[in-house]
Amino acid sequence: MKDIFLDLSVRSVRLNFLRSLLASIGIVIGVVAISSMGMLGANMQLSVKQQLSSDVNTIMISSDVVRTSSTAGTPQTAEGIDKSTLNDITNAAGQNDVIPIHNTRTQFTIGSTDGRGSIYGLDPNDITKFLTIAQGENIKGGSDALVGPNIANNFNMNIGSRIKIGQNNVSITRPTVRVAGILATRGFASDGVNTDNAIIVPDTWYTDHYGGKDLYDQVNVILQNIDTINQTEAAIDDKVNRKTNVVRISDASSRLSSISSTLGTITTFILAIGSISLVVAAVSIFNAFILGIIGAGMGGICSLVIGYSVVSAMIGNTAYFFLPESIMYVPYGMIIGVVVCVLSGLYPAWRASNMDPIDALRNE
Amino acid sequence: MNESPLIRLADVTKVYHLESGNFTALDHVTLDIAENEFVAIMGPSGSGKSTMMNQLGILDVPTSGTLFIDGRNVAKMTPLERTHMRRDVIGYIFQKFYLIPLLSAYENVEYPLILKYKKRDNTGKAAAVLKSVGFDEQMSSHRPNQLSGGQQQRVAIARALVNDPKILLCDEPTGNLDRKTGFQIMDILVGLHKEGKTVILVTHDPKIAEYAHRTIVLEDGRVVES
User: So what's the ipTM on this one?
Assistant: First the structure.
């Protein structure tokens, strides 16, 4: 019993060789389409995850009131995170590192060239906890400064270069800092400290010139264990926002999961479009076959397959294509291909087996 | 006549419900066909010959009345029982042969045995039946499209015979054949009748009907001559 049906299947394939070949090509195109689209989506997710995951262990806390600040020497006029709130955060954060951050935008002059960028005031002891110094050494205090790599490159700065901080105005004598080190490139930092185009000065220097002592623009909590992020955030929220919302608490992880979720939706959407396209393409191919349009069309089919591969190769960064998260879409595509094949075989078989014998003879 | 005929139609009516209204294809037909009869069914187009054949072949059931085949009331049988009766008791021979184009002549004849016994034939029965209709081993390996019309009808007869049915239902078996080949096919059917088969033949051709021992004439769904 078993062999005659296998024989019949093989014979059917042989007798309808061109049609079977086209069906196989259709299935291969479908599997490649679904796999590539899945891999493309996974690629996007992995790429974004890698960008964000370096700072994923950081909780960012900022004042719930938007704070404004002015040029150097002008007293602080708006709210920030005060000493008492910082203490509450420190207590709630437990063993984790708490980094209070002063930050504003500033103008500066290097040599005779004016520039604009961010200036951060940090405790020198905190700097190496989350920043990497590429050249020179960390600041020790006084008027030492670190600069981001973009400023260093754009202004041809070296260790020992000097920067005048503040608006270039002949009537005011501006404070000067000395470059002690140049930071490594960070790119877009999900902990809110974007240093590539910034100057880092000691917190004492910052408050001496911008005011705001014991009043911080942002406080970051660097977790020793990423798994405690939710409970640490809850502890800080309970402690600080007990009566009213004093601070806003966010983290890269929640942003990451939000982005991952969005990308997952996009991937599913792309797969759905791919599946529909597959059906349409398959119908087109087989219609073309039936109508005899592609008599000399093997070149066209090859062009389609090769073109598809080229497009897939051109889309985005291929660095993640061979990671398990990405490559898993190949078996997914194959499974979908097998399911489509089985269903498209079962449905006509089911219809035939349930057909009225008289109708069957009439159709024949 | 046998007290219990092989086929008995008692007041059988078949009505088709069409959009244009009900159409009565068989109208209160009462008829007995005994075992080992050779019967020809004749009548003009639309007289109910095909409907009668569908009833006799258990491809359809009556709207009213009763149909007994081999002692069983067809209306009371389950679909599976009807399928098994079609397979075991009735052999069909069609005008258009209806051979499976993928299979060789031998495999076409072997197929009913496979469906019945769930295994390939190792008894030599398929080859023997083919030989009885004039097919040697070499011809048996040919596919239907490599055979003439007469050869295809011989294969179809062998296929109908392979499960040793009591009844052979032949729907215009010579309709697609030239006259000489048609008579050759009829000679085979006569031989089978002599071996004990009950042969029921639908035909338009009076010359072919002459082979039968009894002719049933239908008009407007009624038996007008029996």
Answer: 0.77
